[in-house]
Amino acid sequence: MRSCRAQCMTVEPRHTEPDPWYSVLISLKLDGVDLMNSYANILHQPGADLITGATQLAHWISLQITRQGFHAFAQSNKVFILAPAAAGAISSTPVIESAGSFPYTVSPFTEVTGAGRSTNTLADVAAWYFENDLRTPTLGNCGSRNQLCDNNVPRPPGLRGGSHQHMVTHTLGLGASGTLHYREDYELATEGGFSGNRKR
Fold it and tell me: Which of 9, 24, 42, 103 might form a disulfide with 57, Cβ 3.0–4.6 angstroms?
């Protein structure tokens, strides 16, 4: 995401039963401008899993952040906010107004770099999920025995990628004619259309 900036907000689950029995994010303002269309809230059920509640609230928050060209997505109890390229270099940290049990941790916007001539495209999303580890103790999605965070993804020699848990995107074009001809070893071949494109 060239010239793109991203920020992370974490919904912190309490280690005890919530009191009061609700949490609400009223506003999220950047330089005095609210990025949320409406507030996001959740009611806590007695004895409920608190990380589940924090994850649900993070999801609702991400759906409300649509103003000024900003967008957001949630992973577990974290909300990642993407700034449009038009926002330029953002040096400030969002200011939140909240009520209820769950507190929030807010980080400043930092630049996200990578390939691409435009920002906030489907290719940017695919690149982010390819390059970043999708299962880490920080995200809290390692499983009950922490076994899901092992970086043991197999990678054939000569191909891009890593052993971390990541997403690989394949594109299928229907009804489109092209100049690349299929060959079974296209990923490792040193000649042919695909090899020539990869070297550019």
Answer: 42
